[in-house]
Amino acid sequence: MKRSFIFILMFLLSVLCFAQQNVGIIVAGRIPDAADSNLYQMQVGAFRNFENASTAFEKLMAASLNPSYEEHMDLIRVMIKGVRARDVPAYIERIRRAGFSEVFIKIETAASPPVRRAVRTEEDFFSPESDTKIQPNVGTGNFPVENFPGYRTEPGFRLAYRFMNKGENIGASGKNGGVDIIGMDLDSEWLWTTYYQGGWFYDLNGINREMIDGYQKDPRNGVELTVKPEFVYDEGVYYLQLRHIVRNSGNAPARGQKFGASADVMIHKNDEAVLLRTPYGVYMTDSETDPSLELMFICESGDGIDPVDTLWTGKFGSGSHLEHIYKDSRSDSRNIDSAIGFSYQDIDLAPGQKKEFVVRFTLSP
User: Fold this and answer.
1) Domain residue spans in the chain?
2) Fold of the CATH domain 143-363
3) 30-47, pLDDT tens digit by residue?
4) How do strand 25-28 and strand 39-47 relate by DSSP bridges?
5) Confidence (pLDDT) at 140
6) Which parts of the chain have pLDDT scores under 50?
């Protein structure tokens, strides 16, 4: 009896040392230091009953937390994989809000990240061959963003996008269509990167700036521009990649074509966000008030990038930035209502020919 009591006491002490009580949720395991370079796995339960595991998995899915599962002996473990150390506290809160009372944290020692530069598509995730409620974590990244209808986000929940279509008079530059991008800070709050979510305003050959779902056409020669957003995982970093596809649907060669885009940019609540020129493009920061959200526009060098022909940074100027889409001004921008423009020019297309041009966005501390 005495020996049993000692064993029970030792077990209780080990649990107290191993688990900690956050508000409304028990956290087992060590919350890592933000500077830790490891990826972490956050398990919300290990279930013998398939329906219970499925329910937990769907709760995480409903909360846009990109769950995974694995079978271990007679248990089904439901978890979130690949969480960066600095994001663990925010994920704990999101797991708590999803209705879970405990979470187990451990270093991900056998992570299997997507292949380098793998574009994640809806077909990958929503497999027609799957007849179970639990699906493998081979994900699309196309998860709805709460409180931002129409936006789609990647599994790491750092970036999301939506198309701004013709007739949506939102913001100063996107009323005739384009692509908007938002980013999440460490407090799990989605923040704007363009003024009033107006987005990037596209231009094709200097006319016809009306875009629907990332598509527009020059009626004079049949040249089409399609903007295709893709979430890409490359060497441990998620990117929103914009693939620009220019196609000549006409019967005659089209020479000297050009297209580009401009945006009235901001970050957090700062409409005068600092724009810093870098070897890879532009770095937009508001580090004095919100160091957790700093947007990189990668358009001049980097894996998978097609260097732009012009890159302009300057003043919004009540919409005058739209006049600078095809101009070049590669200098820093400070203490002004900032804007960015970029373009590809001198594009020659034979009948039926298409060419692609790729840029990327990501977030960095």
Assistant:
1) 16-112, 143-363
2) Beta-galactosidase; Chain A, domain 5 (2.70.98)
3) 888 888 888 888 999 888
4) unpaired
5) 34
6) 11-19, 110-142, 169, 171-174
At 23, list the tokens. 């508000």
Q: What is the pLDDT of residue 318?
A: 72
For domain 16-112, give the CATH number. Answer: 3.30.70.1070
Q: Give residue 78's pLDDT.
A: 86
Two structure tokens written together for 31: 């919350």
pLDDT for position 223: 95
